[in-house]
Specification:
With about 150 residues, the chain is an alpha+beta fold. Helices cover about 35% and strands about 20% of the residues. Strands 1-2-3-4-5 form a 5-stranded mixed beta sheet, with helices on both faces.
Length: about 150
């Protein structure tokens, strides 16, 4: 079985594994994490609803994309935000991230999503190249203006 042969939409029973991957992601990049137990509890609730889904890759899962959906005034369908995407370091370059992203896009199409948004840290040139290879842009196609993400913690 190749790393990309097991790509699937997650369900609430996958919450623990997704939590482990997300915790590893934050730990790898020295970012605060509430820990696996807290993440798993939140994920069980979120994945049971209609506004959050995840895609897992590998068996056992070595990569994840976590997506939230929100309605918007500009289109009939929702907008998807790729909240998190992570592939374990030893699986990077294997194609699993591309396969997860492609499945995530397919699910968004099935759900009638109007647009997918992704936030990337300025210093993460590798992630930017990855998303650009898959058709994402930081430039508005109509105006040519660069898009920016603003943030404020509350």
């Amino acid at each position: 079985m190749t790393p990309t042969s097991r790509i699937r939409r997650a369900d609430p029973s996958d919450a623990e594994r997704i939590a482990e991957l997300l915790d590893a992601f934050n730990t790898e990049f020295d970012t605060e994490t509430p820990g696996v137990a807290v993440l798993a509890e939140r994920l069980r609730m979120l994945l049971a609803g209609a506004s959050t889904f995840a895609v897992l890759g590998g068996e056992p899962a070595t990569g994840v994309a976590l997506v939230t959906l929100r309605p918007n005034v500009w289109s009939d369908g929702p907008v998807a935000l790729l909240d998190e995407m992570y592939v374990e370091p030893d699986q990077r370059g294997s194609g699993i991230g591309s396969a997860i992203l492609q499945r995530m896009i397919e699910i968004c199409r099935e759900l009638g999503v109007a647009a997918i948004e992704i936030n990337v840290d300025e210093s993460d040139a590798g992630a930017m190249r990855f998303y650009q290879r898959h058709g994402f842009s930081s430039v508005d196609p109509d105006s040519g203006e660069r898009a920016f993400y603003f943030y404020r913690s509350l």
